[in-house]
Amino acid sequence: MNAKPFVKWAGGKGQLMGELGKRLPSEILQDGVIPRYVEPFVGGGAMFFHLQGRYEIRESYLSDNNADLILTYEVIKKDAQRLIDELLEIESFHLQKSEDERKENYYRIREAYNSQKIDHQTMSQEWIERAAYFIFLNKTCFNGLYRLNSKGLFNVPFGRYKNPTICDGKNLKAVQDYLKDTNLFQGDFTDSKEYINEESFVYLDPPYRPLNHTSHFTNYSKEGFNDDSQKKLANFFKETDEKGAKLMLSNSDPKNQDEGDKFFDELYSDFNLERIPAKRNINRDASRRGKINELIVRNYH
């Protein structure tokens, strides 16, 4: 079974994978081998799962600044069955309730999640419970968002779903198989620099620059990800290019809202920047969901 993302993630790349896949480095497309794969904003992992199912990845380094996301990847890698057992119990308890009772249960678990004190360094039973809460909240919150407030507390409201799949045991087992030889670590994207060499293919999928001032989907960690972060990432892209690695980066296109906004055109003026049509689903106003352009930046043709 081919693994797929086990969480919903804002900006997830599932529906862009065909376009991204066509733009892989030519040697990967020809040889079917990726000597070293590095993904510093792994998120839902759509690109990694796509590549792992189609190519021979000899080494892989996946990271993210979201500590609980990486903890959940680690739990799946090391003990998927215990996580599945925990999720099945949560799912059974939740789905037998009325909608009002589900809402009450959601906020109870959100409160438990926010009050937990976790040692992110040592695998424990608390890791299993935390990963289960993380997946439960993702599957039952509004639009599958992950958002933290300035205090680092998860604050997404309850989402009304008729029959959410909280535990997809078969997929979690497939994910475990894909992660078997993968190196996972939590940290800023710059922390991945030491793993990047001239044999690396690096995919960068940062929190998207908001398309307007009312968008707040960059708060995957309490620090957020602002324009200064985007400029820091562009510098990282240039430094990594000098190492001889092959690089691909995705982001939102500000020209969707303002034709005169050249923020990314200027940041990546030395590289191959393309605009491709995509479908953006995360918007409070359903009428504003639909086709827009997204950016793909590469340091190769």
Name the quaternary structure. single chain
Q: In percent, how helical is the residue content?
A: 25-40%
Strand proportion: 15-25%
Provide the spatial order of strands within the biggest beta sheet.
Answer: 5-4-2-6-7-9-8
Shape: globular
CATH homologous superfamily title of the largest domain: Vaccinia Virus protein VP39
Largest sheet: number of strands, sense, barrel closure: 7 strands, mixed
How many helices in DSSP terms? 9
Topology:
Layout: H1 17-22, H2 26-31, E1 33-34, E2 36-39, H3 46-52, E3 56-57, E4 60-64, H4 67-95, H5 99-115, H6 125-140, H7 169-178, E5 183-186, E6 200-204, H8 227-242, E7 246-252, H9 263-267, E8 272-280, E9 290-298
Parallel strand pairs: 1-3, 2-4, 2-6, 4-5, 6-7
Antiparallel strand pairs: 7-9, 8-9
Helix pairs in contact: 4-6, 4-7, 5-6
Q: Which features would summarize this protein structure in a list?
A:
2 domains, 16% strand, two-stranded parallel sheet, alpha/beta, seven-stranded mixed β-sheet, 9 helices, 301 residues, single chain
Describe the structure.
The chain is an alpha/beta fold and 301 residues long. The chain has 2 domains: 164 residues, Vaccinia Virus protein VP39 (Rossmann fold); 78 residues, no CATH class. 37% of the residues lie in helices and 16% in strands. The chain is built from 9 helices and 9 strands. The strands form 2 sheets. The protein has a 7-stranded mixed beta sheet with strand order 5-4-2-6-7-9-8, with helices on both faces. A two-stranded parallel ribbon has the order 1-3. Strand 6, helix 8 and strand 7 form a beta-alpha-beta unit. Helix 4 crosses helix 6, helix 4 runs antiparallel to helix 7 and helix 5 crosses helix 6. The longest helix is centred in the first third of the chain and has 29 residues. About 2% of the residues have low confidence.
